[in-house]
Design goal:
Distance between the termini: 59 Å
Number of helices: 12
Helix content: 55-70%
Largest sheet: 5 strands, mixed
CATH topology of the largest domain: Heat Shock Protein 90
Length: 417
């Protein structure tokens, strides 16, 4: 009852108000666009890594620790200001001496050090463990320590020979007498450290989200690869049994046709077991597999069965993932048998440029199945499309006048050609 009331309370603000629905639609569209950009970025990075690994011209082939790129970035941030300082026409119009270099570099180094501590320790171990009080106190101490070290730095650069610790605390340490400390200095440091803390938190949130998305993507890929290996390395037992029984019956009726069918079955098995282990195969080879599969499936159908398989390939050597269209062909052949009417299956495959169009129409008489695993082929087929051809495919199905129609428009990747 409470759950129902909770649902009603959640839906109540949106009742009689289309603004909530519009906001949800905008959020979903934005989320889908960002997911698409993220997947495209993953694909680009994977492509770059593969190109680097496959390149034989790489001269640097020794291990490099992970901290080295970060170290180079830090060195760049430290060295780059020297270009502005040492330039005779620099905009700062200051003389280059130890005092000016210290005054310029101390805030920079303090900021980098506070950023490092936040990025490496404070944000992961305090913010993400909800210890916000400890995080605030830690950064307050860092601000105070940075200001104190700044006073020590000015003391050593400006002190007189006879000035010691007593003069430091009386004249320099947080003192307005020398003109290098004021409320503005404190305010600038507080704002700077607050900005650093905010950037570190946002940085960690983004990194965690990216890593999470990558791990989920790899988990889906592993699960999908298991399903793909299962599909690639097995044919339906019913298909094999029925085909062998049909061939056995043909031996006494039409021995030549039986021999031809046995050869087709042997070739199909050879392709299924060996050729599909490759990541990509030629489009013509994939179409040949579909043709042989359809020819063997027709053995169980009578002569009135109307089957059309039209293939128009502009570039038969274009590469495609093996068995990508097999679930669509299986679906058209298995569910077209109509005992109360004419059975038919019309399949066309047209390829022009990098666009492949698979279109099928068949009489709609789906088999009833109580097995939970039914539809595994089509479910895996859609997963493959979303993972491998995200944003590069259009897939739709519809039923019109007892005719099941499926369309697949695929933009093949140019690097596979």
């Amino acid at each position: 009852m409470n759950a129902q009331n909770g649902v009603q309370m959640t839906k109540f603000p949106c009742m009689n108000d289309n603004s909530c629905v519009k906001k949800t639609a905008i959020f979903q569209k934005t989320r889908q666009k960002l997911a698409l950009l993220q997947e495209m970025d993953f694909e680009r990075n994977e492509k770059k890594v593969r190109e680097l690994l496959e390149s034989d011209r790489e001269l640097i082939q020794f291990p490099i620790p992970m901290f080295m790129p970060t170290l180079l970035i830090w060195l760049f941030m430290i060295v780059f200001p020297l270009v502005l300082i040492l330039d005779p026409s620099n905009a700062f119009k200051t003389s280059v001496n130890m005092s000016n270099l210290a005054a310029y570099y101390f805030p920079l180094m303090s900021t980098l050090f506070i950023f490092f501590l936040n990025q490496k320790y404070l944000v992961p171990f305090l913010v993400f463990k909800k210890r916000y009080g400890s995080y605030f106190i830690s950064n307050t101490i860092l601000v105070f320590a940075a200001l104190f070290l700044r006073e020590v730095m000015f003391f050593f650069t400006e002190r007189m020979p006879n000035e010691g610790v007593r003069e430091f605390f009386n004249l320099y340490c947080f003192s307005f007498l020398k003109g290098h400390f004021g409320l503005g200095t404190v305010l600038v440091f507080v704002i700077l450290v607050s900005l650093v803390c905010l950037l570190c938190v946002v940085y960690h949130l983004m990194v965690r989200q990216i890593v999470r998305a990558f791990v989920l993507r790899e988990q889906k890929r592993s699960e999908l690869q298991y399903e793909l290996d299962f599909l690639k390395n097995q044919l339906s037992p019913h298909f094999l049994f029925n085909t062998l029984n049909n061939i056995s019956a043909l031996i006494q009726i039409d021995s030549k046709r039986a021999e031809s069918s046995m050869n087709k079955l042997s070739q199909l098995l050879r392709m299924m077991l060996y050729q599909v282990k490759d990541k990509y195969i030629a489009l013509q080879e994939d179409v040949d597999i579909l043709q042989k599969y359809a020819d063997l499936e027709k053995l169980r159908l009578d002569e009135s069965f109307d089957f059309v398989f039209d293939v128009q390939l502009e570039n038969p050597n274009l590469m495609i993932e093996p068995l990508l269209m097999m679930p669509l062909m299986e679906n058209a052949m298995k569910h077209c048998v109509n005992p109360n009417g004419k059975s038919f299956a019309h399949v066309s495959i047209v390829q022009k440029g990098d666009v492949l169009h698979f279109h099928s129409e068949n009489s709609n008489f789906p088999r009833k199945s109580s097995r939970k695993t039914s539809g595994l082929g089509l479910a895996t087929f859609e997963k493959r499309l979303n993972l491998i051809y995200l944003g590069a495919h259009e897939y739709s199905v519809r039923i019109a006048d007892d005719v099941y129609v499926s369309d697949l428009i695929l933009h093949l990747k140019k690097e596979n050609a």
